[in-house]
Amino acid sequence: MHRPRNDMIAETRAKLIGAARRAFGTLGYANASMDDFTAEVGLTRGALYHHFGDKKGLLQAVIQEIDAEMTARLNKVSRSAPTRWHGFVEECVAYIHMALEPEIQRIMFRDGPAVLGDISQWPSTSGCVASITRSIDQLKADGLMTGIDSEAAARLINGASSHAALWIANSDDPQRTSKKAAEGFRTLLEGLRTAKA
Question: Is 21 exposed, middle or buried (0-12, 13-18, 19+ CB in 10 A)?
């Protein structure tokens, strides 16, 4: 019995993304050999080119997968907080702390910007800004945040958190830098909070 073509395509893509993610996470983008990770899953370099165009396209797909996982984790953090304000702050701080995780640090915050350019221009950034804007709109509606323009605040918060993550990932002492970045970020967000929050 033949499997549906869409299932086969999805399986091939998943195999390539998984192999590339392991290679990029352990060896780094520059040292990861396309032939090695395609052979690892029994596929050819041709399959990689067909599905992703090139190694850079495959890195983009890996980053999209990691970004989706990070988003799911961050949503869980905000949902488990005692209040909407605390959820917002803890979600932002959790993002910064994720830069300590070796795979995220290397792929998202070292190799990603080096290969794909400015993180603020990545397609996922606009979705992140939109999500932060919605959160700010809700916080303002609940009287928990000052009357700042929501999109401006979202872009500033997104930029600050991305920069903090890059700072941590490229620091000589990521643990110490993460602590300083998280404390500073909490202080910045407190400036947007109303007394009611």
Answer: buried
